[in-house]
């Protein structure tokens, strides 16, 4: 990957890495830098939904990495809403285990970096993608959805008790609340946000990772045709009526069109566009959101495909007003200390970067535990050989 390749597209770039060191105020919380780790699920919890050994290892590595915001992975709010049998689950029985993981993460970061990151827990219901039992969104009763809204409130209370600084009412990537948005049914999502806000203690952040463009994941789609009129109306409610100050913007559905939010060099199909066209779309549409709501702290996604030049993309996106923070996903699997290297050295090391080979996604599709087969091969190559290439 070269800078000239990126410059063929309208992708924001900058050499000014110091802009990523600037703090950001979010209510009563101040983030120490503009870098985030996106919710990267390892599918490695215990059968009852507690963090497993690889889960703990992953967050210990993330904690050392130096990102100011750690967006904790998808955590189901009800047992039937888990996307896989090893997805984390928040309930009273698992609270102590989550408290220990949060405390360990904060302690390691404080010791290694001099600060504890903001931890946001992603609260999810997987809808039609739930396993082992599939729950198509169209089959869920109004009574079930109404009760689910209150579960987001319960999850917010538990997340605060666990030590998280906020909760994400997840509405992206084809999962339940995103699919309801695509069906022109925003009420369940809005009411779930309200329930979480009502249950949250003072200073606790209620936010969302929100699809603003579904692509062809659903027949109608949210943000269809890259038209953000509908998503912007929803964000206006979230920000100006409900007071949401932080929003994580993403797109697409990994089960249907992974090239939209995870452009790849090698994947399950031939994508209909060059990968960098997907990166360009991600920042073009995210920039529309940030410009429409200048007081909103928008987290951008999708900087991993450009490899080491993701650092220049992150700096350019913040400098040019596309977003306030940039979140790295696959890159964090491959290179958990990416933030430390950007902030201290002003660059990423090419030999440590994600190469967008898709093997972490292959592990998930094989119902295995996910991680970087290339850069963390001592752990994940044997798992890949066992579960994918067997």
Structural summary, described in words:
- With 390 residues, the protein is α/β, with parallel strands linked by helices.
- The protein folds into 2 domains: 352 residues, Alpha-Beta Barrel (TIM Barrel), CATH 3.20.20; 34 residues, no CATH class.
- Helix 4 packs parallel to helix 6.
- The protein has 13 helices and 11 strands.
- Strand 8, helix 7 and strand 9 form a beta-alpha-beta unit.
- The strands form 2 sheets. It has an 8-stranded parallel barrel, surrounded by 5 helices. Strands 1-2 form a two-stranded antiparallel sheet.
- It is 38% helix and 14% strand.
Give the helix/strand layout.
Blueprint: H1 3-6, E1 24-26, E2 29-31, E3 35-37, H2 53-65, E4 69-76, E5 88-89, H3 95-113, E6 118-124, H4 142-162, E7 166-169, H5 176-182, H6 187-199, E8 205-213, H7 229-241, E9 246-251, H8 275-292, E10 297-300, H9 310-319, E11 325-328, H10 330-334, H11 338-345, H12 359-365, H13 377-387
Parallel strand pairs: 3-4, 3-11, 4-5, 4-6, 6-7, 7-8, 8-9, 9-10, 10-11
Antiparallel strand pairs: 1-2
Helix pairs in contact: 2-3, 3-4, 4-6
Assigned CATH class of the largest domain: Alpha Beta
List the total number of helices: 13
Give the name of the CATH superfamily of the largest domain.
Aldolase class I
SSE string: HEEEHEEHEHEHHEHEHEHEHHHH
Q: What fraction of residues sit in β-strands?
A: 5-15%
Largest sheet: 8 strands, parallel, barrel
Q: Calculate the terminal CA-CA distance, rounded to whole Å.
A: 32 Å
The oligomeric state of the chains shown is: single chain
Q: What is the radius of gyration?
A: 19 Å
Helix content: 25-40%
CATH level 3 topology of the largest domain: TIM Barrel
Number of structural domains = 2
Major beta sheet, strand line-up: 3-4-6-7-8-9-10-11
Number of E strands = 11
CATH architecture of the largest domain: Alpha-Beta Barrel
The stretches of 5 or more residues where confidence is low (pLDDT under 50) are none
> What coarse outline follows from CA principal-axis ratios?
globular
Structural class: alpha/beta
The residue-averaged pLDDT reads 96
């Amino acid at each position: 990957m070269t800078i000239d390749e990126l410059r063929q597209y309208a992708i924001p770039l900058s050499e000014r890495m110091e802009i990523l060191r600037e703090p950001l105020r979010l209510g009563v919380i101040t983030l120490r830098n503009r870098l985030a780790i996106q919710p990267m699920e390892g599918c490695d919890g215990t059968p009852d939904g507690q963090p497993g050994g690889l889960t703990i290892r992953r967050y210990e590595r993330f904690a050392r990495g130096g990102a100011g915001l750690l967006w904790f992975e998808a955590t189901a709010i009800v047992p039937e809403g888990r996307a896989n049998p090893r997805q984390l689950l928040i309930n009273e029985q698992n609270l102590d285990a989550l408290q220990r993981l949060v405390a360990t993460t904060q302690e390691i970061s404080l010791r290694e970096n001099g600060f504890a990151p903001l931890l946001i827990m992603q609260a999810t219901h997987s809808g039609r993608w739930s396993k082992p039992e599939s729950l198509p969104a169209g089959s869920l009763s109004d009574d079930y959805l109404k009760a689910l809204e209150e579960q987001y409130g319960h999850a917010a209370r538990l997340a605060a008790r666990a030590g998280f600084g906020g909760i994400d009412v997840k509405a992206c990537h084809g999962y339940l609340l995103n699919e309801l948005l695509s069906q022109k049914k925003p009420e369940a999502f809005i009411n779930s946000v309200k329930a979480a806000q009502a249950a949250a203690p003072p200073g606790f952040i209620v936010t969302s990772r929100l699809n603003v463009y579904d692509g062809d994941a659903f027949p109608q789609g949210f943000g269809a045709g890259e038209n953000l009129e509908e998503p912007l109306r929803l964000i206006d409610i979230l920000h100006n009526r409900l007071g949401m100050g932080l929003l994580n913007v993403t797109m697409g559905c990994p089960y249907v069109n992974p090239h939209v939010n995870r452009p790849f060099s090698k994947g399950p199909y031939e994508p209909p566009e060059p990968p960098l066209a997907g990166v360009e779309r991600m920042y073009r549409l995210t920039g529309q959101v940030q410009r429409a709501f200048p007081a909103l702290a928008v987290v951008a996604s999708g900087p991993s495909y450009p490899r080491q030049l993701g650092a220049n993309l992150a700096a350019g996106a913040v400098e040019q007003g596309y977003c306030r923070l940039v979140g790295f996903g696959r890159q964090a699997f491959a290179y958990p200390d990416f933030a430390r290297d950007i902030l201290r050295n002003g660059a990423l090391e090419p030999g440590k970067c994600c190469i967008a080979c898709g093997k972490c996604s292959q592990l998930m599709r094989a119902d295995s535990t996910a991680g970087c087969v290339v850069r963390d091969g001592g752990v994940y190559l044997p798992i890949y050989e066992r579960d994918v290439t067997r």
